[in-house]
Amino acid sequence: xxxxxxxxxxxxxETDQMGVVYHAxxxxxxxxxxxxxxxxxxxxxxKLEEEGYLSPVIDLNISYKNAMRYGxxxxxxxxxxxxxxLRTTYGYEILHxxxxxxxxxxxxxxxxxxxxxxxxxxxxxxxxxxxxxxxLARELS
Length: 141
Known about the structure:
This protein is about 30% helix and about 35% strand. The protein is α+β, with helices and mostly antiparallel strands. The chain has one domain: Roll (Thiol Ester Dehydrase, Chain A). A hairpin with a 4-residue loop joins β4 and β5 (about 90-95). The chain is elongated. It comes from Bhargavaea changchunensis. GO terms for molecular function: hydrolase activity.
């Protein structure tokens, strides 16, 4: 299974008064991981936007396991859990540097026309990208 890894240093502005990472920042880190995965396999989300498509989140799940704190580095692991005609599910693990799981999650995305918000398959928008996602999702099965 192909898993992208990227890391972020926990900034003071991402924490609450106790020095613990505020929960919404994990979602930002998931986006960082997803973008890193997309670029790592040779594609760019902004190219889809230029061609008139958007990829909104239609479902999101996160489970918090062990708090991250100011000054630590978070390792973001991202992969394709599934890819179908109209939906792609990404999986995530956010780890402490020692490998302890801080959070896990999934985000489900669809592809829509920018002007109409009508769903469109990635196969139609970018057949090469669709084929790569299908390959990576099969590796997981």
